[in-house]
Design goal:
alpha+beta; 1 helix
Protein backbone atom coordinates (compact mmCIF):
# COMPACT_ATOMS: atom_id res chain seq x y z
CA UNK A 1 0.00 0.00 0.00
CA UNK A 2 1.37 3.43 -0.90
CA UNK A 3 0.11 5.12 2.24
CA UNK A 4 0.30 2.43 4.93
CA UNK A 5 3.21 0.40 6.24
CA UNK A 6 1.42 -2.90 6.81
CA UNK A 7 4.56 -4.81 7.81
CA UNK A 8 3.98 -4.22 11.55
CA UNK A 9 0.41 -5.47 11.21
CA UNK A 10 1.53 -8.61 9.39
CA UNK A 11 4.34 -9.17 11.90
CA UNK A 12 1.87 -9.14 14.79
CA UNK A 13 -0.73 -11.26 13.01
CA UNK A 14 1.84 -13.86 11.95
CA UNK A 15 3.26 -14.09 15.48
CA UNK A 16 -0.24 -14.42 16.93
CA UNK A 17 -1.02 -17.25 14.48
CA UNK A 18 2.33 -18.99 15.04
CA UNK A 19 3.47 -18.38 11.47
CA UNK A 20 6.88 -17.45 10.06
CA UNK A 21 7.37 -14.65 7.58
CA UNK A 22 9.69 -13.36 4.88
CA UNK A 23 9.77 -9.90 3.30
CA UNK A 24 11.22 -8.49 0.09
CA UNK A 25 11.40 -4.95 -1.24
CA UNK A 26 11.38 -4.45 -5.00
CA UNK A 27 12.82 -1.12 -6.04
CA UNK A 28 11.19 1.30 -8.40
CA UNK A 29 12.45 1.19 -11.98
CA UNK A 30 11.48 4.27 -13.98
CA UNK A 31 12.86 2.84 -17.24
CA UNK A 32 10.44 -0.09 -16.99
CA UNK A 33 7.70 2.17 -15.54
CA UNK A 34 7.62 -0.05 -12.45
CA UNK A 35 6.64 1.19 -9.02
CA UNK A 36 8.48 -0.05 -5.95
CA UNK A 37 6.71 -2.67 -3.87
CA UNK A 38 7.06 -4.70 -0.71
CA UNK A 39 6.08 -8.37 -0.60
CA UNK A 40 5.40 -10.34 2.57
CA UNK A 41 5.00 -14.12 2.66
CA UNK A 42 3.57 -16.08 5.60
CA UNK A 43 3.89 -19.83 6.14
CA UNK A 44 3.50 -22.42 8.87
CA UNK A 45 7.22 -23.18 8.93
CA UNK A 46 10.36 -21.85 7.25
CA UNK A 47 10.75 -25.02 5.15
CA UNK A 48 7.45 -24.17 3.43
CA UNK A 49 9.21 -21.29 1.68
CA UNK A 50 11.39 -23.73 -0.24
CA UNK A 51 14.31 -22.00 -1.96
CA UNK A 52 13.02 -18.58 -0.87
CA UNK A 53 13.94 -19.46 2.73
CA UNK A 54 17.62 -19.09 1.80
CA UNK A 55 17.33 -16.44 -0.92
CA UNK A 56 19.27 -13.31 0.11
CA UNK A 57 16.57 -11.07 -1.38
CA UNK A 58 14.02 -12.39 1.13
CA UNK A 59 14.61 -11.42 4.76
CA UNK A 60 12.90 -12.15 8.06
CA UNK A 61 10.11 -9.69 8.77
CA UNK A 62 11.31 -7.11 11.27
CA UNK A 63 9.78 -7.28 14.76
CA UNK A 64 7.60 -4.27 15.58
CA UNK A 65 6.72 -3.43 19.18
CA UNK A 66 4.88 -0.14 18.76
CA UNK A 67 1.49 -1.58 17.77
CA UNK A 68 -0.97 -4.09 19.17
CA UNK A 69 -2.21 -7.07 17.20
CA UNK A 70 -5.16 -6.09 15.04
CA UNK A 71 -8.36 -8.03 15.67
CA UNK A 72 -12.01 -7.78 14.68
CA UNK A 73 -12.42 -5.43 17.65
CA UNK A 74 -9.23 -3.38 17.32
CA UNK A 75 -7.22 -1.71 14.60
CA UNK A 76 -5.34 1.56 14.40
CA UNK A 77 -4.75 2.73 10.85
CA UNK A 78 -3.04 5.94 11.97
CA UNK A 79 -0.31 3.93 13.73
CA UNK A 80 0.87 2.50 10.38
CA UNK A 81 0.23 5.56 8.18
CA UNK A 82 3.29 6.71 6.20
CA UNK A 83 3.54 10.32 7.25
Amino acid sequence: NKYLNLQPVLDKLSADAGLVSRVRDDDEDEEKEKYGSTWVLLARQKADFGRLAHNKNWKDLEKWNFIKTWTDDFSNVLSVFKW
